[in-house]
Write a structure and sequence with these properties.
It is a single chain. The chain is mostly helical. It has one domain. α3 crosses α4, α3 crosses α6 and α5 packs antiparallel against α6. It is globular and about 45 Å long.
């Protein structure tokens, strides 16, 4: 649980810092679209909800699944990979990327089930 709290706090700090201080938004080798296009497409609440499921044992809510699908797979993949590449998490990166794909598949399924035919 402590690791999840650190991940969540780090993510929130990165998002807030990138909004307030543009020079902190992107490290030199980071894809600029990560911050410019993806982070702003999903609410902080849902971002934390998704991170909780990928990096711990949380469960993504239905509204957050819908936000995730609207955000798009490329953004979801990019943001989770960005977090999974942190030095404290890299040892379990393949596990996190698998969970990322499972969350995506689940959310697409939920969204399709809720969409009017």
């Amino acid at each position: 649980m402590a690791k999840l709290n650190i991940i969540m706090v780090s993510f929130v700090v990165l998002v807030v810092a990138s909004t307030c201080i543009p020079s902190l938004a992107v490290e030199e080798n980071e894809p600029k679209k990560l911050w410019d296009q993806c982070v702003v497409k999903i609410s902080p609440k849902c971002a934390l909800n998704i991170i909780s499921q990928v990096f711990a044992n949380g469960v993504v809510s239905i509204p957050c699944c819908q936000e995730l699908v609207q955000e798009g797979k490329e953004c979801h993949d990019t943001l989770i990979k960005y977090i999974a590449d942190r030095p404290s998490l890299i040892g379990n990166e393949s596990k996190y990327l698998q969970k990322r794909d499972e969350v995506w598949a689940h959310c697409v399924s939920v969204s399709k089930a809720l969409s009017p035919a």
